[in-house]
Structures are given as C-alpha cells and as structure tokens.
C-alpha cells in the first residue's frame, strides 16, 4: 500500500477488515478524511484510490493493499496546491468539515479533465454534501485551479 | 465505532473463491454490505471479489452474435467505459442507468453483482437488465457454473435465487437494440433511492413502428417487473397518441405499488404513467430528465 506517494508498512492481517477511513485516521494518523454519515452518502471521507474518488468509509483495508491512496494531506505534493490556494482565495471554506473530501473529488476530476465544465464539476461533486452550501465557490475555485495549472489555456 | 473487525480474504484467482466462501460472505464494492454492517448486521468472514477484476475485462461482446458479457465484479465506472467503447458493443439503457446511479464516489466502487444480489426492488441497474432478458452466471460451491434467467433470479424484496457459497460472476444479454433508455424518479438527482424507475428498449422500423418492445419498472412491485401488457400493446405499432394512451393505461395491470417511506402507491401509479409516456413521446423543448448532467443555475444565467 502506498499513501501520499510513499509506501506504508503492510497492514497486519487482523486489520484487513478495518475500514480504510479508520486505518488512515487511527493507525496512520492522517485525520484529514472525516467521518460524516459512515454510509457513503455525504462524501466527507472521500480519498483518491488509484486515481478515483471513493468514500473511505465503504472501503476495507484488505481491498486496497496494492493501491495508491491519496488523502488531503498529500494533495499539494501531487500538484494540487493551486487547487487548495484557490479554495482559500475564493473563500470556498466555511465550516470546513466537507472540504477534504470535496478537494479530493475536485483533484481526481482535474487529473482526468484539465479544464472541466461546470457540468463536469457538478457530476464530480455529486457525492459530496456541503451544508454551508459553498458550491458556487467550489466551481469558481476549480476553474481557477485549472487555469493556474494550464496558464495558456491549453487543454489536455 | 463500527462492530467487530471481520476477517477479510482477497483471492485473485477466480477458481479459489468457492473454496473460501464456505461459512463466509462475498463482498465487492461494499456500498450495501458495509452500510448494513454499520446498522448492526453481523458480518462473518468476508471474501473480497474486487481482486478478480484484473483477471478479465469489464465488458466483452461476442463478434458473431453480439451478445454482451458484463463482469459482476467491476465497478460501474469501468462498465460505463466498456459499454461506450465501440469495440465492446453498446447497451443504452444500462449506460443511462449507470449515469443516474448514486454518485461518482459510489459508481467508483459499486458493482452489478452487488446490485443484483441485494435484491432491492428499487435497484437501478436491474430494470435495464430485465428488459434485455439478462442471464445471470453463478459459480456454485463445487466451482461449477449455473445460469439462471434474471426474471427467475429475483424472488422478492431482498430475496434472490443465490444459495450459500454461490457467487455471481457475470451477466449476459443479447445484443441490445440501439434505442433504449432509463429514467428514475427520486428525492433528488444524486444519491437517491428510486421512488420508481423505468428501462426500455425497442427497434424502430423504417416505417416508424416499434418492434421488440421491452419495458421493465422498479419499485412498483416486490421485484423489478416487466410491463408485459403495455409492451404488447406497443408491439408492431406506430407510437401515436392513441397507442401511447392505451399502453400507459395498461401499466396499472402490470404493477402493484405500495405506500412506503419514500412514496405513496398513488404517486407511483401517476409517475409510472408519466415515465412511460415521456419515454415514448419525449417532450420537446425541455431538458430531458434522463440526461444526467444538467446546466447549473450559473451557466443558465450566462
């Protein structure tokens, strides 16, 4: 298992049935992913597994032993600092509880779509609830981040 | 915290699965099982099927017959890609159903196998498969294979024809016609359990008549059901207003909706009529609700 670009100690067999969310938070000390509903509906625990956004409350450790996992703690190192900066600049963060999951959904989108449309952002965020309802600012921040990564407007 | 940590086994060889399943339970995307577990369900040793996805493609089509074989252990995201890939054939109703299924994060985990074995009358991938006359390939405890028609596989709410130690490996359908679709009615667009849903497929002959009409509706009976009476009234007909009116009126005979926490039986009957009517005669000049991505308010205002 690799987490945020570095290999981590192979989880003990007794831990294979743990939720990835609990393993990240309680064993690896990565508390960025938050538990909201614990049922895959709110998106607060979203992490990126092999390039795709998934809710870590519905993934068991033993299912991802050979996976590349990215959490909010590793986003900047993966080139998504501009996305995080844009969230700050656009004041897209209010209470903040949903933000690690939202950032991961947006980062996974930007990794496959260099200049996503509002409709694509809407779809990428359809599993992330923000009850402060800063969605319009999320859209603005993603557009800003896309422009920052491709300053000449070059699409992939 | 969640209940006691189960043992999890992860075979990567399909032939090894049956030997591990004795006294255990299969898990794939976990999007239903882990929700049940959180609600207090006892979970025995789990055998994870997602490791099998690397041993085979998500979707294959038979060059000679066009029959599609759809993996039961791949996430829906992979199926959506496979079904729109020209080389692997197309299945418009299933593609539309996946597009309206839960959310991006869930589509990245959830499998057809899981959606089938949970036996929910509201399962969103099942109507397209039932309309297409799908066959379910099941691996038996001795490692053999048995195939059952989906219509016979669905026994009732949360009941399917799957014995202990058996697991669903794939789903097969005859090459679907180019015209087909799926639409659901839910409390909101994302993450909604369907109040009801409808899948359809038919051939449109050069003179406009519909043939091979097959309709299936979810959340209006103990299992997803075919709308056989309505389909028979449409068969070999031009979908004129009169023909559509007759087919829509016939739905009532094919469904038996109940009042539950999501919707009333009365509401479901009214919506069932509207779903079929709009599938046959799409309203013009309005956004089609089965198109998953809609413009945001901001885009509309630009």
UniProtKB/TrEMBL annotation, chain A:
Residues annotated as domain 2Fe-2S ferredoxin-type: 1-75
Keywords assigned: 2Fe-2S, Iron, Iron-sulfur, Metal-binding, Oxidoreductase
Any Pfam family the entry gives: Fer2
Molecular function via GO: 2 iron, 2 sulfur cluster binding; metal ion binding; nicotinate dehydrogenase activity
Signal peptide: none
Gene3D superfamilies in the record: 3.10.20.30, [2Fe-2S]-binding domain
EC assignment: 1.17.1.5
Record PANTHER family: OXIDOREDUCTASE WITH IRON-SULFUR SUBUNIT, XANTHINE DEHYDROGENASE IRON-SULFUR-BINDING SUBUNIT XDHC-RELATED
This protein's name: Nicotinate dehydrogenase small FeS subunit
Lineage of origin: Bacteria, Bacillati, Actinomycetota, Actinomycetes, Micrococcales
UniProtKB/TrEMBL annotation, chain B:
EC number in record: 1.17.1.5
Source species of the chain: Occultella aeris
Record-linked InterPro entries: CO_DH_flav_C (IPR005107), CO_DH_flav_C_dom_sf (IPR036683), Diverse_Substr_Oxidored (IPR051312), FAD-bd_PCMH (IPR016166), FAD-bd_PCMH-like_sf (IPR036318), FAD-bd_PCMH_sub1 (IPR016167), FAD-bd_PCMH_sub2 (IPR016169), Mopterin_DH_FAD-bd (IPR002346)
UniProtKB keywords: FAD, Flavoprotein, Oxidoreductase
Entry protein name: Nicotinate dehydrogenase FAD-subunit
Chain ranges of the FAD-binding PCMH-type domain: 1-178
Claim: Oxidoreductase is one of the keywords in the record: yes
SMART domains to which the protein is assigned, alphabetical: CO_deh_flav_C
EC category name: oxidoreductase
Gene3D superfamilies on file: 3.30.465.10, CO dehydrogenase flavoprotein, C-terminal domain, Uridine Diphospho-n-acetylenolpyruvylglucosamine Reductase, domain 2
GO MF annotation terms: FAD binding; nicotinate dehydrogenase activity
Claim: Flavoprotein is one of the keywords in the record: yes
